[in-house]
Amino acid sequence: MDGLIAGAIYSLTASGMSLVYATNRFWHLAHGAVLLSAAYALYGLYSLLGLNFYLSSILTVITAMVLGLAMYIFLYRPLRRRRAGNLIMLIASAGVLLFFEGFAQILFGSDVKTLEFIEVQAGINVGGVLVTPLQLIIIACSVVLLLVFWIFIKLSPTGKKLRAVADNVELARLTGINTDRFQALSFVIASAIAGCAAILIALERNVEPRMGVNFALVSFTSSVVGGIGSMPGSILGSYLIGFAENVTLWVIPSGYKEAIPFVVLFLFLVFRQNGILGVEKGMRE
Amino acid sequence: MTAYLVQVFTLILIYIIVAASLNLAIGFTGLLSLGHVALFGIGAYTSAILTKDVGVPFMPAFFMAGLLSSLSRLFLTVVTQKLRGDYFAFVTLGFNFLVVALAQNWISLTRGSLGIPGIPRPVIFGLTIKSGGPFLLLTTVVTIGSLFFLYRLTRSRYGRLLEAVRDDSVGASALGKDVYRLKYQCFVVSAFFTGLAGSLFAHFIQFIDPTSFYLSDIIIVLTIVITGGLASLTGSILGGFIILAIPEILRFLPITPEAVGPLRQMIYSVILILILLFRPRGILGKVDID
Lengths: 285, 290
What we know:
heterodimer; A: mainly alpha; two-stranded antiparallel ribbon; about 70% helix; about 0% strand; globular; B: mainly alpha
């Protein structure tokens, strides 16, 4: 059950990271910074300022979107214009991630924050497993969000153009698509989903400075394990990692939990580089 | 004040060894290796455990630290031989997490998150190296020795060959050079010096725990290398002094001690991003990343 919850949350962050990778061809580690900032925004607005929860949530998602877009405009785009390679982009985004981690520690302290919006409720028995209503809400939210996202990508005209950019940027540009705008759009969409994920995480778990780095690494791993640039792949990868983290708890001490995604990543990169779904696209370094 | 300066100087020198050897690995193979802090940690733990728990004298423990670090790198290189670019970077980063997780959980060996306190002062030929001046002297000798070796290496025919491999690995292999072997030799040499630096660090601070080898430390070393410039040893030395000296200013400002760590992390990130944006080759760099 814990694996399912973890997978539901990871799939939200991983699909966003995967979308950014597909359209921009670099790993946006600072996606973790968006998530971190959104979670603290919610904590600040709701717990510290005492705003209405739903209003705070909407503001949180907007914060995430603005932040994601700002990163694209002020960092990634200038870097790309200077012909920076993938590794430079990766290092720069790691820099952003650590910047926000430090910032959150200074602003809110390094201790763990809890939202205390929903009181701990007794679990309900669903098919022999104890589930709290919140956990059901999380899974439902995650599934609905991803479904909407998927339909948007597959069916809407904008989604079609996004896929064209993801497929081949040069070709998309030649056919008259404003690729820059669509690359920016992918950041906005990914960040919006990350904002929603941040709300769910703040409700179910806690808010702490380390969460940005942890989620960034897990999201990367899930995307690679599932099959790079493929949305169903990254969702599949997320659940796999979620289960792997929790199932292994039976066998090895919980202290190793942070290292588990890497072991899975490691095995996949060594033995099956194209991931579960075997997507070839985007594997050229 | 002098004691404080000696402290800072010693730490800077230790970091310069790590940065210079990381620079050898990145600048001469073109692969972004993020596992160096783990190797540094392996060196530190090896030396600490050998001298404190096993009772081995300093010198053998010191070299064992380098050797074990090399061996770990060899293992990592063998399993990552097919990887390049982002994937190589992530797997080496993962190696880092794995080592930290081991240090935290292999309690019978490392005492977990309690860390290892009271690591003995180094004893060389019956002489105990005290903290302060004498330790700085030892560190300086090791640093100069390492840098000299690395310098000779990069200037030798072997160094030229490494440069050829980095710039055109297909061309080099067409000339009959074993590209893969050159790369792993480069990594292993680099790991050896990183391990030595780890040993110095353990005996200098006299206390180590897993948090000393975390992600933020990777960024420090990486910032030094990138600020100084890839494939430039002088750059790494210069970068080390600049990057490590700047946050020391914080000590003289009225900030709470808890804020110093995060603030330092923010300063490093900003420097790193600014360098990447405005001077991606660093101060003295010869090649671009990627």
